[in-house]
Amino acid sequence: MALLELNDLRVSLEDGTEIVKGVDLDVSPGEIHALMGPNGSGKSSLAYALMGHPAYEITGGEALFDGQDVSEMGADKRAQAGLFLAFQYPHAIPGVTVTSFLRSAINAIRKARAGGEDDPVPIPEFRKELLEAMEHLKIPRELAQRYLNDGFSGGEKKRVEILQMAMLKPRIAVLDETDSGLDIDALRIVANGVRELVGPETGALVITHYQRILNHIKPDFVHVFVDGRIVEEGGPELAHKLEEEGYEAFLPEGAEA
Ligand SMILES: Nc1ncnc2c1ncn2[C@@H]1O[C@H](COP(=O)(O)OP(=O)(O)OP(=O)(O)O)[C@@H](O)[C@H]1O
Ligand SMILES: [Mg+2]
Question: What's the pTM value of the predicted model, to 2 decimals?
Answer without folding.
Answer: 0.91
